[in-house]
Design goal:
Strand content of chain A: 25-35%
Largest interface: A-B, 104 and 104 residues
CATH class of the largest domain in chain A: Alpha Beta
CATH topology of the largest domain in chain A: Phosphoribosyl-aminoimidazole Synthetase, Chain A, domain 2
Order of helices and strands of chain A: HHEEEHEHEEEHHHEHEHHEEEEE
Helix content of chain A: 25-40%
Number of helices of chain A: 10
CATH architecture of the largest domain in chain A: Alpha-Beta Complex
Oligomer: homodimer
Shape of chain A: globular
Strand order of the largest sheet of chain A: 8-10-7-11-9-12-13-14
Number of domains of chain A: 2
CATH superfamily of the largest domain in chain A: PurM-like C-terminal domain
């Protein structure tokens, strides 16, 4: 009865590869390397924020995400309503990162028997709030049982005109690298929540301290997608050459743009936008705020590149920072620190060069 | 730090409702009752085999499913490659059940650390085989960690012309009820696999007996979607008025059509198509084969209704059985047995009336 599955196969076969050896992006590349789109309507398959499907002119953009209890969220500090809201937002963020407009979502969940209908009502109340705020329709999904915990899978569907879509692959040498809002806040929000969780588990009578850095906690628990940025850029007559949303951290995400655009880049530490609370909280946790911005992730800000001749048009535009330049592909993606050092950017961090 | 979540909330609040009280379909209805599509492009939201989105004439059809290890599949007898294949097929079946053509899929998985890259390669080999056989493109997905086991979420995207789509809601009084292929085989295949699993767990040296009913085992492990049926019907110039794929069992699925079409129905036991192995294996397990057909599920055959004036066109069409008639909504959906009795059909079974 035994087949070549999971644990069963490990005793019989030598040279099996732990998934951790490839890492998340390596794993996706590995598993999907032999899949090549055959349909002319498949404009873009795997490899960007979302897939793109041609519908006689108008394009359909599709993105999907899976969230697992204990891996992506922790119920000790995550209200179910916020979880529903955030689950939708992180998917919509991928659609906005294509400069497309999300229109529909599907929501699938699996839950163990410890969840009540009232608990799921809370979750769906958050889903509904996000649908309302971002003007999208819930059009389908699936509910099923799980042995342990909650698993959420959301697919977002949007539309775009062909000439408006922005891929990760369009960055050109000399382009400016820009980012909306500020970075690292959600990561520090998570550190605060994890600290209070530890204190709570040691002594459930301790009142949690979440009021010192309310902005950071909110960025973690109830992030928003930047559906305003493309309007702002359109009004300034700026069209990004490449774009991605910052979900894995600035470092990983600029590397996605560099890899797919076949370019290098320079980021300048002093230009990376940080919220005042981010700088202050980083000190509390004895962390470098710039490391939080580079490696933290979950910011859901938009990271994009614009051609040099459009840079003057950014004057007077608030909430967008210019943080670097695109370079020749032979130049490794590099961080220039305020102290004059250079570090090579690597996925999930940086190392000395 | 406590919020109104899962287990945490149960002690504080009285009158919480276990999910089991609503059942799967009741739960979906409950959770989504306040979601109403706002976009004119959302042609059909929740409630059919798939959602329908208008793209200036051509329609996009979207369906999604989540599969959880230990709930929907068991690795003791499910080869990963078959699992990959089946995961795709069950989603495509929903698209075909709309009389649409699937074009793209996204595949998201979460796996625990016991899975190796080679194990996932096997899974994706099955995904690839299904993509090839059914001519669909893999266009996206997500991979993440789980604490326990494997969770799969697949979304299928198809297209259809507006005049070709078939919903669950179009059945009319006097329509004939038809089904492709035969029913109950996948359920009996599962019984065989479960029996061999028990024997294996008692004595791992016992050789599994899977050769007696190979058809049933294959129907369970490697089902196919009926992408041929609509071509067959089109050639016979028949257009179904309502259609659904048999995933939950004939009884549940005809009730979906009756509920959404606001009609009743009569099914005739002697006309329900059974494979010879289904009848024989049912005897082995001391089960009524008709109960397997009504309640078993996972057949992925197409169940549809056709207008009375088209019934003659079915002559000479192989592989489609006429199993009943649509009736006035006041008549409860009823099974007429070979012995002349009547049973009221209920979801997941039937009871005496």
């Amino acid at each position: 009865m035994k087949h070549q599955n999971g644990s069963e196969s490990q005793k019989d076969q030598p040279q099996l590869t732990p998934i951790s050896k490839l890492g998340e992006f390596g794993l996706i590349d590995h598993l999907t390397k032999n899949f090549h789109p055959k349909h002319p309507t498949t404009v873009k398959g795997i490899g960007d924020d979302a897939a793109v499907i041609d519908n006689r002119g108008k394009l359909t953009v599709v993105s999907t995400d899976m969230l697992v209890e204990g891996i992506h969220f922790d119920f000790i500090y995550t209200p179910l309503k916020y979880l529903g809201y955030k689950s939708v937002v992180v998917n919509l963020s991928d659609i906005y990162a294509m400069n497309a407009t999300p229109k529909q979502i599907t929501v699938s969940i699996a839950v163990s028997s410890r969840f009540t209908v009232e608990a799921l009502d809370e979750f769906y109340a958050g889903v509904a709030e996000a649908c309302h705020f971002y003007n999208v329709d819930l059009v389908g999904g699936d509910t099923s049982s799980s042995h342990k915990g909650m698993i959420i899978s959301i697919t977002a569907i949007g539309e775009a005109n062909p000439d408006e879509l922005v891929y990760r692959s369009g960055a050109q040498e000399k382009d400016y690298i820009c980012v909306s809002g500020n970075l690292g806040a959600a990561y520090l929000g998570l550190q605060i929540l994890e600290r209070e969780k530890r204190l709570y588990l040691e002594d459930p009578n301790i009142k949690p301290e979440l009021d010192t850095f309310p902005y950071l906690v909110e960025r973690q628990l109830k992030p928003e997608a930047r559906n305003d940025i493309m309007d702002i850029l359109r009004n300034a007559q700026i069209k990004p050459t490449a774009m991605i949303d910052v979900s894995d951290g600035l470092s990983s995400d600029i590397l996605h743009i560099c890899k797919q655009s076949n370019v290098g880049c320079r980021l300048f530490e002093e230009n990376i936008p940080l919220h005042a609370q981010t700088a202050e909280a980083a000190q509390t946790f004895n962390l470098s705020p710039i490391t939080c911005a580079l490696n933290g992730g979950e910011d859901y800000e938009l990271l994009f590149t614009i051609p040099p001749h459009q840079i003057n048009q950014l004057e007077g535009v608030h909430g967008i920072g210019i943080i670097g330049r695109i370079t020749h592909p032979k130049e490794h993606p590099t961080l220039f620190t305020s102290g004059g050092q250079t570090h090579r950017l690597i996925a999930q961090g940086w190392r000395h060069v």
